[in-house]
Write a structure and sequence with these properties.
It is a single chain. This protein is of the alpha/beta class and 333 residues long. The protein has one domain: Rossmann fold (3-Layer(aba) Sandwich), CATH 3.40.50. 46% of the residues lie in helices and 11% in strands. Strands 3-2-1-4-5-6-7-8 form an eight-stranded mixed sheet, sandwiched between helices. Strand 7 and strand 8 form a beta hairpin. The termini are far apart. The protein binds NADP nicotinamide-adenine-dinucleotide phosphate. NADP nicotinamide-adenine-dinucleotide phosphate (NAP) binds next to helix 1.
């Protein structure tokens, strides 16, 4: 069960770019905290131009300050220093779908192409809520908002592929997708509200995370010139993802005990949690023929996801239903 660290991706083996000569552009959702913070740190150290799409500007700017300091510290210990990239803020709130075309517009005013899109932001195991866009909250933040963002950014990714560089889409799913593997949930069941919520919230998380893997597999079919990878980053107890359960009255004692055991048995650090994403973004060994639509787990090891997540027919249902729902809400997809 314990992760085999000898198989973890080493970001230092990936190419470094000089942003003055080769402008490699990344857009990541979240990233101001948790594993996304380390993803951004390493991409910045490798010379990438990073757009961090977040909902709170002050948090993103603070993350930039800390990432720049950490990069300077790491570079000060090296004999050969590589030029660092650039860090830019873009406003996005995945709980408000109207913010997505606005974020894409803001991006298009600065860049003409996109190399890597990372759907990193997420929430987990939160109480039942329906968003103002009329989706279950975990389904919207983890899946629908990223689906819309991907559809809106496809032209910018495709532009890069015309120049001979393979653009990449990386979506942070989770081993938790298996919570929804005991039966086939249709996308219209995203608002599943059964008792007790403390159990069904995990099924809803599983539905959202299964949909993300289905999306990656559909992208591999529908957009074969883009390398799309789904990731389970590992069990990382040091991020803010578990905060809701850590703070629940009474329940928090049991939850924290379970978290402590999970951490001991299979936990990895926040930085190790970024490695699977970094491999999907940067490894020169990946290619469209052998890796498109794959699912990476902790450290970047390839694994098979659940049958529901791998089923292309189910994936197509998820895609088609969601396109229609977005169109009903006025999005031009
Ligand atoms: N940690 C784990 O053990 C684990 C395991 C499997 C999968 N994952 C997945 O890995 C990804 C990153 O998780 P993490 O552990 O790094 O979590 P985290 O520390 O809680 O970070 C989540 C990020 O998502 C952002 N976010 C949440 N809601 C948002 C919204 N409505 N609009 C825009 N941004 C929003 C957060 O921004 P704010 O700071 O503004 O809230 C934060 O930057 C998630 O997709 C998660 O499901 C994590």
């Amino acid at each position: 069960m314990s992760p085999n660290r000898s198989k973890f991706f080493n970001p230092e083996t990936a190419p470094y770019y000089d942003p003055k000569e080769d402008r490699r552009v990344v857009l990541i959702t979240g990233g101001n905290t948790g594993i996304g913070w380390y993803t951004v740190l390493h991409l910045y150290l490798h010379g990438y131009i990073i757009y961090m799409a977040g909902r709170t500007e002050s948090k993103v700017l603070k993350a930039f300050e800390d990432i720049k300091k950490e990069a300077e510290l790491r570079n000060s210990k090296l004999d050969k220093i590589h030029p660092v990239g650039e860090l830019h803020y873009i406003h996005i709130d995945l709980l408000d779908l109207s913010s997505i075309p606005q974020a894409v517009k803001a991006f298009s005013e600065k860049e003409s192409k996109l190399d890597i899109l990372i759907g990193n932001a997420g929430i987990m195991g939160v109480p039942y809520k329906v968003t103002k866009d009329d989706y279950e909250i975990q389904y919207q933040v983890n899946f629908v908002a990223h689906f819309l963002l991907i559809l809106e950014l496809l032209p910018y990714l495709k532009k890069e592929s015309k120049s001979g560089i393979t653009p990449r889409i990386v979506l942070l799913s989770s081993i938790g997708h298996n919570f929804a593997s005991y039966k086939h949930f249709k996308p219209e069941q995203n608002k599943l509200n059964c008792f007790p919520n403390s159990i069904y919230t995990w099924v809803r998380y599983g539905i959202a995370k299964t949909s993300e893997i289905q999306l990656v597999k559909q992208l591999a079919v529908k957009e074969p010139e883009i390398l799309s990878i789904a990731v389970h980053p590992g069990i990382i107890l040091g991020t803010e993802l578990y905060n809701h359960w850590r703070e629940l009255p009474i329940v928090k004692y049991a939850a924290n005990a379970v978290f402590a055991i999970s951490d001991k048995v299979m936990g990895v650090s926040n930085e190790e949690g970024a490695l699977a994403t970094l491999k999907a973004c940067m490894s020169p060994e990946l290619n469209l023929k052998k890796d498109n639509g794959e699912y990476f787990v902790t450290g970047g090891v390839v694994e098979k996801p659940s049958k529901n997540a791998s089923n292309l027919k189910y994936g197509e249902e998820t895609w088609d239903w969601n396109v229609k729902e977005l169109q009903k809400r006025g999005f031009n997809v």
